[in-house]
Amino acid sequence: MKKIGLTGGIGSGKTMVAKLFETLGIPVYYADDAARRLMNHDPELKLQLLSHFGEAVYKNGLLDRSYLASIVFNDLEKLELLNSLIHPITLRDADQWMRTQHSPYVIKEAAILFESGAAVHLDYVIGVSAPVQLRLQRVMERDGLSAQEIKSRMDKQLSESMKMKLCDFVIVNDEVELVIPQVIELHKKLLAL
User: Fold this and answer.
1) What is the dihedral of CA 104, 2, 177, 14, to 10 degrees?
2) Which CATH superfamily is domain 1-27+104-193 in?
3) Is the pTM of this model over 0.85?
4) Average pLDDT per run of 10 along the chain, which is 193 residues long?
């Protein structure tokens, strides 16, 4: 079974593309959702987060994501620390999940596949590309963040052009090119590999 990564910058439409692959019967591991689950339920990770970020990182036993984001997105060292705690546990969780799947290929959807080093564990990587202004608009509408907050998060990720150069395949999600035919065509290619 092939292991395929799916990545793109914030607001590129990765999740929408992942859902399209799911409609084609392909299992998808959502790394951000898994990280949230693990930060709330993995005892080892919870202890590490409490130790490094303090008691306020959890409210009523659940991760206070906005509090944690306010810390890590304003301090590069703390963001790197958080990633160093989460990535090994998420990689292990994804690997265990992949071993339970029975399909020609599986997809791991994650914004920072290259930055985290997770891409080296995959056979191919698909990038989802969209213009920066469109990405900003999508995230402002979806998350209610300011353009400055979004740009700050974008600055913490690889540039769009560098990320797409590292990908084996690219899906353009610019609201001009149709996405569904691109996904179907890529699905056929992946089945043939």
Assistant:
1) 110
2) P-loop containing nucleotide triphosphate hydrolases (3.40.50.300)
3) yes
4) 95 96 98 95 95 95 92 89 94 96 97 90 97 92 87 83 96 97 98 94
